[in-house]
Design a protein that fits this description.
By secondary structure, the protein is of the alpha/beta class. It is built from 16 helices and 13 strands.
Length: 407
């Protein structure tokens, strides 16, 4: 067996010593720069920035991808002529991360000032739903253009769009105000259908909303149809609200009074979204935030919720799944949380949609993952057009250098 001589050992030791000494001679600022560079690379990947991609493509944006049935009359007569669906979408350059877009929308986004006119709708079980109305006159002239159906003015033919907000959101949410303002400015009458217990209205029955609860939307649509039988009715659902809308359209088929609808950032498959939101550290941040919002909703109505479900478990919930297991599942009378997710997922109903439906999703949505998008089901239904963009985050879709508008 070969053995190193003392001279060879001394040579090896001296080599490491020389390396250490040379490293010590490097200025501390160089190490700091290297650490900062590594940190920024980590941050760029962790927050899913795409600024370099935008820069290399000269900020031209990415084309909108359309999925539809080749025999679709809807595409030929409407979508083929829609410039925005055949254009390109460019995210606001300084918001070139889905997480920055969501942060801006949630905390810093400036939404148009709107003043709703409220009507309260009493559900069949005694529950109360706040309907917030907005008209062209409200946003352009600053005067109320509210039609009072009690005066018999039922012949108005102004198109009405019903907006269904997302989880724990109401008519005051920034993205809802953007939608309401833009529709009203174009001459539409907007009705934001707040979920039970939201919009500053207390729960007045033991029934709470969930991702699969379509009865409230059905009754509200029928109610507005009775009030304004001459007005074309449309609906726009956002996030969880879009899941409710698509499920409702699939359940009612040709019996719905709606002329058409739009589903923005739909979760589609709640089981897949549940797994996705627990997968990576950044998704777990959203999981915690959504759980806190749900617990805040439960706290607002503690007198009712604590009587129907285990309040201690609700308070200790650390994820959306925990909350759904201890609260949503119990209140909705589902056997298990997975049963709730399976039965409530709109992916099971999109094939039965019988009115024109535009579905819009961003592939970088960090909440409603693109893995859940039912590409084949949308392509098989002639009434559905699916528009996807590489970027846009969850309900954000900021555009313009000032990020003052949503795409």
């Amino acid at each position: 067996m070969d053995r190193q001589t003392p001279a060879e050992n001394a040579s090896a030791v001296s080599a490491y010593q020389l390396l250490f000494q040379s490293l010590c001679l490097m200025p501390f600022s160089h190490y700091l720069l290297a650490a900062l560079f590594t940190f920024f690379i980590f941050l760029y990947v962790f927050l899913e920035f795409h600024f370099l991609h935008d820069f290399l493509t000269l900020f031209r944006g990415d084309p909108v991808s359309l999925t539809y049935n080749s025999c679709s009359e809807l595409y030929q007569s409407v979508a083929a002529k829609c410039k925005i669906l055949h254009g390109r979408y460019l995210v606001t350059p300084w918001l070139s991360s889905p997480h920055l877009q969501i942060a801006c929308l949630s905390f810093f986004g400036k939404a148009p000032p709107v003043t709703y006119k409220r009507r309260l709708f009493r559900a069949f079980d005694g529950g109360t739903i706040a309907l917030d109305w907005l008209t062209y006159h409200d946003v352009v002239e600053g005067t109320s253009g509210m039609i009072d159906s009690s005066n018999g003015l039922k012949g108005d033919k102004t198109p009405i769009v019903i907006v269904i907000p997302g989880l724990t959101s109401d008519s005051t949410a920034a993205y809802v105000r953007h939608i309401a303002f833009n529709f009203a400015r174009q001459g539409w009458t907007v009705v934001v259908s707040n979920h039970r217990g939201l919009g500053g209205v207390s729960l007045t029955s033991d029934c709470c909303y969930n991702a699969g609860w379509t009865e409230d939307v059905r009754k509200i649509i029928d109610h507005i149809r009775c009030e304004y039988p001459e007005a074309p009715l449309y609906a726009v659902g956002t996030s969880l609200g879009s899941n409710v809308l698509v499920k409702y359209l699939g359940e009612d088929g040709t019996n719905t009074p709606l002329v058409g609808g739009a589903a923005i950032c739909c979760p589609w498959d709640l089981l897949i979204c549940d797994r996705f939101i627990n997968r990576r550290p950044v998704q777990k941040i959203y999981n915690k935030a959504l759980t806190a919002d749900l617990q805040g909703y439960a706290q607002l109505h503690r007198a009712i919720v604590s009587r129907l479900a285990d309040w201690e478990c609700i308070e200790k919930s650390t994820s959306v799944r925990d909350f759904d297991n201890h609260a949503t599942r119990v209140l909705g009378k589902f056997e298990t949380v997975d049963a709730y997710y399976r039965r409530s997922s709109s992916i099971n109903y999109v094939g039965n949609v019988s009115v024109p439906l535009l579905c819009v999703s961003a592939l970088d949505d960090p909440v409603c993952t693109s893995e859940a998008i039912p590409w084949d089901e949308c392509r098989a239904n002639e009434n559905v057009i699916l528009a996807t963009t590489p970027h846009g985050a969850h309900l954000a879709f900021y555009e313009g250098i000032t990020a003052s508008s949503l795409w």
